[in-house]
Amino acid sequence: MPVTPHPTRGITNCSRCSAPIRWASGPQPGQRTPINAMPSPAGNLAARTDGNGGLVVRQLDREFPEPEAARLEWKAVAHWSSCTGQQTNPTVSAPRSRPARRRPIVQPPLWGQQPGRSGR
Question: Which residues of 47-84 are buried (b: 16+ CB within 10 A; e: fewer)?
Answer without folding.
Answer: bbbeeeeebbbbebeeeeeebeeeeebbbbbbbeeebe
